[in-house]
Amino acid sequence: MKNFRELKVWEKAHRIVIDVYKLTTDFPNHEQYGLVSQLRRAAVSIPANIAEGCGRNSQKELRRFLEMALGSANEVEYLFYLSQELGYTESKVIDSMIDQIVEVKRMLTGLNKRLCLKEKFGG
After folding, report:
1. Could you tell me which CATH number the domain at 4-121 has?
2. Is the CB of residue 39 less than 8 Å from the CB of residue 79?
3. Theoretical Cys-Cys bridge with 13: which of 38, 43, 46, 102, CB 3.0 to 4.6 Å?
4. Has this prediction a pTM greater than 0.85?
5. pLDDT 10s per residue in the chain (123 long)?
């Protein structure tokens, strides 16, 4: 598989991680080992799974890691909603972050479908 750094979906997911780290520095201290930790871990998991999948020997394995990245993206999206409802972040900031995560989810789904078709029909 190609270098993960060449994938636009990895670039966008990596940018989300940076933004999540910056965003969560303003969360309450009592959330340091709760929501902050969970949100950061889930965000890091997205590009990390993409990278790990790219290092595997088959497209089937890559697709499995893309599915895990998609699961983490769904988790991050939920945690954004939660942090907004708890009043830890302004709506416009969270709305922007959710737009980014939805785009990454769309890209992961599209890449996974393309790989599935490639696997099925060759190429």
Report:
1. 1.20.1440.60
2. yes
3. 46
4. yes
5. 679 999 999 999 999 999 999 999 999 999 999 999 999 999 999 999 999 999 998 899 999 999 999 999 999 999 999 999 999 999 999 999 999 999 999 999 999 999 988 777 775
